[in-house]
Fold this sequence. Notes:
The chain has a seven-stranded mixed sheet, with helices on both faces. By secondary structure, it is of the alpha/beta class. The protein folds into two domains: 91 residues, Outer Surface Protein A, domain 3, CATH 3.90.930.60; 163 residues, Rossmann fold (3-Layer(aba) Sandwich). The N and C termini lie far apart (52 Å). Strand 8, helix 6 and strand 9 form a beta-alpha-beta unit.
Amino acid sequence: MDYPVISPLYTLIKEKTQIQFRRDDQQAIFVxxxxxxxxxxxxxxxxxxxxxxxxxxxxxxxxxxxxxxxKDLQQQGIVIEKTLHSCAWKEITATQKDISTLVxxxxxxxxxxxxxxxxxxxxxxxxxxxxPREANxxxxxEPGLTPSFIQKWNEDHRVSWLRVSWTTSCAEVxxxxxxxxTACYQCFQQRLLSNRRFRDSYGxxxxxxxxxxxxxxxxxxxxxxxxxxxxxxxxxxxxHSQLCGRLLYMEWDTSQQFIEQVLRIPHCMGxxx
Length: 273
């Protein structure tokens, strides 16, 4: 295969003991075999390396093992040739609402708003509003805002919105909250610690956003990762959202990603009722 690349139809989820690929709401694909080989191979699948160059870059693994893994990834549709990459993007957008037609509202600390708009504009978003009910979807960025402020905003407006958050060590996108369809922000706050794998890191994060000090500058890598994930979710919005009622979490130091389900709290009095 010439210039193999991971298909944009798949989201890579890395965990400590396994690596999986997910396509929209379909069942996850777990790749069998040597996880260390897969971890070393993934950065090379960027469409810039031929198969020969990939083999040369992995001298510690038998060539037959690398070729076998590449073949397995290709048969499952996870890895495609670079020439097919644009076709895959057409498949993503063919049945989805054009991102350029969406009207987006941004709720964030003032130092982030322009940076977020600039990043989303580069990714294809053309229409912004400050009035939540005029928007198809709102983007709510937690850094610099308190949970109580967001909770009140959620109760006042009751609109569909996507939560975004980042620190220097982690980044989160999701859940996408839809009134009377998904768990609400109140459910999310109550369930978060019981569902979370990394309670200590979330505790540190909570301290940061509750201090109301100077927010993080919007130049950290986790912020840029968040913006790319937001753009992908906007592409899927209204058709097959990946983060509807789910949280995508990135541990930045290890580059491990996790998806967590956020379920409703029984008898919740928030906007999911």
